[in-house]
Every structure is written in structure tokens, then in C-alpha cells.
Design goal:
- This protein has about 425 residues and is mostly helical.
- The radius of gyration is 27 Å and the shape is globular.
């Protein structure tokens, strides 16, 4: 392994004779299988060499957080003595790589997670949401996160669920408002807490009627308006990705087309699998987690060509069945936050002015464009996979150009 990274010479000898050469080489092979390139592997090998020498001189491989911090301090001190400037990024990378190495070889001592007294309540609420309410996995995860924040807040104040009272909920809402969160965010948080408190009432964990005292902020009609970039800006965004030849650009071009042509959600894009692409019949199958069903689309030529190019030129050969994978190692499926970051970064870089900059903004732009093209709300709802026409009706509010045409219409002196 060392020969492949450094060739034959003094560097290879140093890496071989230094402590824990077998353990270091084993981890480097593991990193290689994860898709890391040669240059990054060389950097990891150097960090592991430094860590191995220091740990061997100060007690061996078995280490916890305190020992790793001490090792990082010593390495930083040595770097300062040889004229190197203090570098926070180098310290973070040293700790990250060394921690992963020790974890991989089974020598990292970690603290057992502190038991949370409310864990059973949270688990019961999650099972109820999934099994009895039939909520989508995304909604279950979202509500669990919000309720977990609430229960942490209670625990920090030595309060129990059995002691819940309207004044307690009011105090929690006040600290949410103090954080400067938007009304919509607080409303989402409030809805999750109210659902949990009502569940607690049914289970007899707290007194009845407490949930009715929880009132979130009022959401005005304009707050629900979907605001995405204009269609010319969307076109510019896609053309920018198409004009570049880098691996990430080729992949992102295909993803952007899926977000704009079909109005897919980020989670639906990351869930796409190779078997969802029916090349023989030019069909694309999309799993709708909210509806717990799949939807079949005709595969548009421009989208199909972009995906084919990505599969042929960029996508690594590996055992993952997900269509879109990370370009940099470790190789693995993309995540929804990664797609959000990609879209937001590209929108910002092009100077596109839009209130919202994530993938959902492109879904809104797709719906608004279809509305401008004359499609009915029912057709737009079917295209976006809405369960209810009410979810689509909101796009009628954003057809500003149509409203202007009505306002400019000559009523023949009747006005």
C-alpha cells in the first residue's frame, strides 16, 4: 500500500518502520475502497504516521477524547517549533482522521451515551405516528426532532411531562420567539409539540386540556405563497451546470433537471434507484414517501440524456443501487442536505435573487411555469404528486402576470 502511494524510496521506509504499520495500512486500504483519490490518501497516511509515533510514545493506541486532544496539542507544539504557524484546520483534520482510524481498528474509547429519562416517551410517540397515524418517515423524523428539543428543554429545567401546564408551554414558546425564528418555523415546531402533548394526554402522562392551551403564531395568507426563482433564472441555472465538464457538474446537471422538469423533492431524488429507470420504455418511477406510493413519468429526452451521461462518464462502479452518489470519497448515496447545499450554492453563485434557494424553490418554479403555460391545477397537482387539490390551489395566487393582465383589461367603460 505504501509503495503504491509514495513509490520506492525513503518515504516508504519511514512509513513501514514506524509504529503500527499494519494498522495504518489496513485503514488506508479501507479508505481506498471508499473512493478516496491518491492525493488524499497520501495526506491521510502522513497524518496517521504522525499520530502513530505520538501515541506510541505516550501510552499506545487505546485512546479516548482527552488523549487525542493531548496528542493534537503536542503535534501543534512541534509544528510551532519547526516554524509552522498555528493552523486550526490542520488540528481538526488530525483529530478527525486519527479518531476514524482508531474507531476502525477498534481502539477508540468512547463514552457511553447518557440515558435520557424521556427516551421511552419519545419512542412511544414515534411508533404511534408511524403505525397509528400512518405519517411518512420524513414527517415522523421531523416531528421527533422538534419534540426531542422540547423534552431536552424540560429536562434542563428539571421538569417532567407529568408537570406540563399552560405556563410551561408559554415559557417554551417565548424562548423560541427569542431565537428570532420565523413565524412559519415556530408554527411547525408548535404543531409537533401540540401533537406530542395530545398523545401524552391520551396515554395519561399529563393532565387533560394542556394541548389546547398551546397556540402558535398566526400565519398570514401571504406566508404560504411559494416563492421560487423565475423561469429564465432556472434556465440559466441549468445551462450553467451543463456548460461545465467537471464530474460534479455533470451529476448536478442531471439532478437540476429532475428538480425542475418534474418538480421532485430532494428526498425523492436521493431515493432514485437504478431499477427506477426503464430505458426500454422511457419511463421514470418516483417513490412518493408522503403518499406511500410510486408515480411513473415519461422520461423526457433532455433528462434521460443527462442521466445517461452521468452514468457513463461520472458515476463510480460500485455496489450502491442509488442513482446519484457523492463525487468525493467516501463513495455513497447523496443526501437531501447535500442536494440543498448544491442548489443553494449554485443559485447564490449566479446572483439569482430568490427568497428561498433550496430544491423546493425549484419545485415551486416548476409549478408556476406550468401554470403560466396554461395547465389546470388538477394537471399540475398530478405532475407534482399532490394528494389534494388544496395543495396545488396556492399556486393560483402567484400567477402575478395573469393578475396584471386582468387589471389592465379594458372593461369598456363598465368600471
Amino acid at each position: 500500500m505504501f509503495d503504491g502511494l509514495f513509490g520506492k524510496g525513503w518515504f516508504v521506509i519511514v512509513h513501514r518502520v514506524a509504529p503500527y504499520a499494519v494498522e495504518r495500512e489496513e485503514f488506508l486500504r479501507h479508505c481506498q475502497t471508499q473512493g478516496f483519490d491518491r492525493r488524499y490518501l497520501q495526506r491521510v497516511a502522513r497524518i496517521l504516521l504522525t499520530a502513530a509515533i505520538d501515541l506510541d510514545a505516550h501510552g499506545g493506541l487505546s485512546a479516548g477524547r482527552a488523549r487525542l486532544e493531548a496528542a493534537a496539542n503536542r503535534v501543534e507544539a512541534v509544528r510551532g517549533k519547526v516554524g509552522g504557524a498555528a493552523n486550526a484546520a490542520c488540528r481538526v483534520e488530525f483529530l478527525r482522521v486519527t479518531r476514524r482510524w482508531l474507531l476502525f481498528i477498534g481502539h477508540l474509547r468512547t463514552r457511553a451515551p447518557r440515558p435520557r429519562p424521556y427516551a421511552a416517551l419519545l419512542d412511544d410517540f414515534q411508533v404511534w405516528m408511524a403505525d397509528e397515524r400512518g405519517l411518512s418517515p420524513g414527517t415522523v423524523r421531523n416531528r421527533r426532532w422538534h419534540v426531542d428539543q422540547f423534552l431536552r428543554w424540560l429536562q434542563a429545567r428539571r421538569l417532567c411531562v407529568t408537570e406540563l401546564a399552560p405556563r410551561t408551554l408559554d415559557a417554551y414558546l417565548q424562548q423560541l420567539n427569542a431565537k428570532g425564528l420565523s413565524r412559519v418555523t415556530i408554527k411547525i415546531h408548535t404543531n409537533a409539540i401540540r401533537a406530542f402533548v395530545r398523545h401524552a394526554e391520551r396515554r395519561g402522562w399529563c393532565g387533560a386540556g394542556v394541548a389546547d392551551a398551546l397556540h402558535g403564531p398566526r400565519i398570514y395568507r401571504e406566508d404560504g405563497l411559494p416563492l421560487g426563482p423565475s423561469w429564465p433564472d432556472v434556465t440559466r441555472l441549468i445551462q450553467d451546470a451543463a456548460s461545465s465538464q467537471g464530474p460534479a457538474d455533470v451529476r448536478d446537471h442531471a439532478i437540476l433537471l429532475l428538480l425542475t422538469v418534474y418538480g421532485l423533492r430532494a428526498g425523492e431524488v436521493v431515493a432514485l434507484r437504478l431499477e427506477d429507470l426503464d430505458w426500454e420504455h422511457d419511463r421514470l418511477t418516483v417513490r412518493r414517501p408522503k403518499q406511500r406510493r410510486s408515480q411513473v413519468y415519461p422520461l423526457a429526452p433532455i433528462v434521460g440524456e443527462a442521466i445517461v451521461r452521468y452514468l457513463r462518464e461520472v458515476r463510480p462502479r460500485c455496489g450502491f443501487r442509488e442513482v446519484f452518489l457523492k463525487v468525493l470519497g467516501p463513495i455513497g448515496p447523496m443526501t437531501s442536505p447535500a442536494i440543498w447545499s448544491m442548489v443553494a450554492t449554485r443559485i447564490t453563485r449566479l446572483g439569482i435573487q430568490a427568497p428561498h434557494r433550496g430544491p423546493h424553490a425549484l419545485r415551486h418554479a416548476c409549478a408556476a411555469h406550468l401554470l403560466q403555460q396554461g395547465l389546470s391545477l388538477k394537471e399540475i397537482g398530478d405532475h407534482l404528486g399532490h394528494r389534494s387539490l388544496e395543495s396545488t390551489r396556492i399556486y393560483a395566487k402567484v400567477d402575478i402576470q395573469g393578475l396584471r393582465e386582468v387589471a389592465d383589461f379594458d372593461l369598456g367603460g363598465l368600471a
